[in-house]
Amino acid sequence: LQNITKVFSDRKTGNSVTAVTDMSFSVAPGELVAVVGPSGCGKSTILNMVSGLYGPTEGQVLIDGEKVTGTRPEVGFMLQKDLLLPWRSIVENVEFGLEEKPFNKAERRKRALAELQRMQLADFADSYPHQLSGGMRQRAALARTLAIEPELVLLDEPFSALDAQTKLVLQRHFARTIADAGVTCVLITHDLNEAVIMSDRVVVLSGRPGRVVDEFEIDLPHRTD
Ligand code: ADP
Ligand code: ADP
Where are the transmembrane segments (predicted)? Predict the structure, then answer.
């Protein structure tokens, strides 16, 4: 992100709202960067611009040196509320993301099952989302995100709806899985603890409009141990 400023026009009042101002940071290939800050400092806005949902008012977002001008198939998304389709089994949900890829049915199934295996959900491939716990559904959602073999994964508060214990287990599991997959990742969270547990580097935002106020490396073996 190079000197990003984003100004919205408020739907109700028509007033201008500056969500983020003069924000710059970068993420190296294979790195997991956590973007942390209080509610309203522009975290979701940043993610939406990186995903190409909308552009910045000033500055630019680059992926591999290329300006982002729209959504891209190589960017995988996972949000706070998983969007598993309730009428599809877990394996069918993971296959869903693969339907635009040039794989036949058998290949899709094979890839989806391999992803579920990695997320320790192989035994639940034929279950339906409502039969799984919240933590299991989030694991299924990550399996679906990783199945498309994205270059970049964007995680937006993926654990905020989970209980503390499930959260801790999943934070470590997700960080390792993403490291093993060699995927570049931006994690958005308001939880500094989660940022430290999961990431290689933390970018701290603050204020309204949000700006980068700190940035530090995490020197723990947390993603490989
Ligand atoms: P979060 O705190 O998780 O970012 P919000 O409730 O702030 O979630 O935002 C939910 C959605 O509503 C986002 O897509 C955001 O872009 C949009 N949004 C937030 N504030 C406004 C606003 N004042 N006017 C219009 N849309 C908004
Ligand atoms: P965070 O994710 O850190 O909670 P957001 O990116 O959701 O912060 O919001 C940052 C600011 O931008 C907030 O004041 C929010 O209301 C505003 N905002 C976000 N999206 C929109 C939108 N689509 N329209 C108007 N204002 C928005």
Answer: none
- Pocket around ligand 1 at a 6 A CB cut-off: 10-11, 39, 44
CB 136 within 8 A of CB 124: yes
- Which residues does the chain have with pLDDT short of 70? 80, 82, 221-225
Helix (H) or strand (E) holding 75: strand 75-78
- Name the residue at shortest CA distance from atom 21 of ligand 1: 10
Residue 80 CA to ligand 2 center (angstroms) comes to 16
What is the ipTM for the molecules in this complex?
0.75
Provide the whole-model pTM.
0.88
| DSSP codes joined into one string, 163-225 | -HHHHHHHHHHHHHHHHHHT-EEEEEES-HHHHHHH-SEEEEEETTTBEEEEEEE---GGGT-
Give the atom of ligand 2 at the shortest distance from the alpha carbon of 39: 4
